[in-house]
Amino acid sequence: xxxxxxxxxxxxxxxxxxxxxxxxxxxxxxxxxxxxxxxxxxxxxxxxxxxxxxxxxxxxxxxxxxxxxxxxxxxxxxxxxxxxxxxxxxxxxxxxxxxxxxxxxxxxxxxxxxxxxxxxxxxxxxxxxxxxxxxxxxxxxxxxxxxxxxxxxxxxxxxxxxxxxxxxxxxxxxxxxxxxxxxxxxxxxxxxxxxxxxxxxxxxxxxxxxxxxxxxxxxxxxxxxxxxxxxxxxxxxxxxxxxxxxxxxxxxxxxxxxxxxxxxxxxxxxxxxxxxxxxxxxxxxxxxxxxxxxxxxxxxxxxxxxxxxxxxxxxxxxxxxxxxxxxxxxxxxxxxxxxxxxxxxxxxxxxxxxxxxxxxxxxxxxxxxxxxxxxxxxxxxxxxxxxxxxxxxxxxxxxxxxxxxxxxxxxxxxxxxxxxxxxxxxxxxxxxxxxxxxxxxxxxxxxxxxxxxxxxxxxxx
Length: 461
Ligand code: PMP
What we know:
Helix content is 42%, strand content 15%. The protein is of the alpha/beta class. It has two domains: 3-62 and 343-453, Aspartate Aminotransferase, domain 1, CATH 3.90.1150; 66-341, Aspartate Aminotransferase, domain 2, CATH 3.40.640.10.
């Protein structure tokens, strides 16, 4: 990278989810070019994109069919809006396709540009719905600790990660959180997964009763948690949670922003984990991330109430300038066509199996506490003591060490705390999966070597 690029990035470009002071000394890695599952920096170094960017570039970084569709749409109608009875062909086609694909019967699709906006919209619609049916006091929204739903004011409130709240005056009032369904960390000694799931359902039930069921509007859940560290729900979890929600007339909103479109080896995480939501938010792989687009799918029950309410008020007073952007919708439609035509959902399951088997072999590594995942979404959690599951001290930031060793070995993986997460593009092939495994194993070894050399002590299993 030229010195000028580095200096100008530091001078002008603010990086989200970054230690801003540290960035001034570390500087950027400037990515210059993509090819399939690989990305190249501007010095020509190659990396396997083990994270598909931010869990999103499902078709890799050089899918010409998406470029062609976007170009065609840019040349035909590069923008139009969808307020007040206006529409475009790509928006209509994509809405229809999403309703066809939905994991449970859904009625309508509302488009935005990001996952955060989709979740904000879902919160607003939950409120609008309960106003419409004469229960306006049903307002509280429940998320889960370590859940991630975005960084806008409402979606960050819903998120259960302390660093997204701290010093931002968040969460807003009326946003509550229950336990993370992570059996390895939250399960009690001797407890089965099933008993753990029952305990979490009881916790939710108790919270709703304490708060008053007539004050609780909705519960949000990622079918499998992404940014919380690739957390897979325990057996029976969603069936038990759904029973509680139905009993108290609390809406269930599935945040499929990461899990939608093949990530867990099925079209939807809701199918993999038995979720029956009232609304679904999705984004990311919807366009394989080539254009910003998110969608909110809603059930007939919600739509019927909204319809009546908008008639009463005279307008459904919500919407975004770039919602249903025709180029984004055209790209989305083509991405969904490619997933199906190229068999990429099945391919994700097969490659995910290979990645999972390979990562599970690393469970014997002295640093590895748990390997967990589904489809092409995996997490490897590092511990200081395997037997007691004692983590490394948080300030040691050991996960970041491994992330850096992997990066130096030509592999992009992401440390979320001390869990290294993997979400390669759905197009990843067998050789690339094996390469990811080799590069990651060498990063783990380099991390272990450095740790021991600096006088670190691991507790043996
Ligand atoms: N929900 C989930 C599950 C996510 O992973 C993300 C982003 N990683 C979001 C919502 C927010 O999406 P965006 O960054 O597009 O606003």
